[in-house]
Amino acid sequence: MKAEFYLTSGKHIKSAMFDEYGPVAGTTRLVRMTLYDQLRKQSHSVMRFSDFQPREVPDKLFHQGSGRF
């Protein structure tokens, strides 16, 4: 799986590769993702996810243009 991120101007700024999935609490979850910077071609970040804990997340975080986090 892959995601592409663009500015409102249409400029491509990042690509995300969903690299690795694994079993977590009886289901399959994303455990590693790599973000590639499209402005600085040699730059990337690897995110590893662990110690999953359920929590409440406000709906406003899932609406584009919702303001502050």
Poorly predicted parts: none
Main sheet overview: 4 strands, antiparallel
Order of strands across the widest beta sheet?
Answer: 1-2-3-4
Tell me, briefly, the overall form.
Answer: flat
Q: Mean pLDDT score, rounded?
A: 90
In percent terms, what proportion of residues is strand?
over 45%
**Separation of termini?**
26 Å
Plain-language structure description:
- The protein has 69 residues and is mainly beta.
- The chain has one domain (2-51).
- Helices cover 0% and strands 49% of the residues.
- It contains no helices and 4 strands.
- The protein has strands spanning 2-6, 12-24, 27-37, 44-48.
- The protein has a 4-stranded antiparallel beta sheet, with no helix packed on it.
- A hairpin with a 6-residue loop joins strand 3 (27-37) and strand 4 (44-48).
- The radius of gyration is 15 Å and the shape is flat.
- The two termini are 26 Å apart.
- The mean pLDDT is 90.
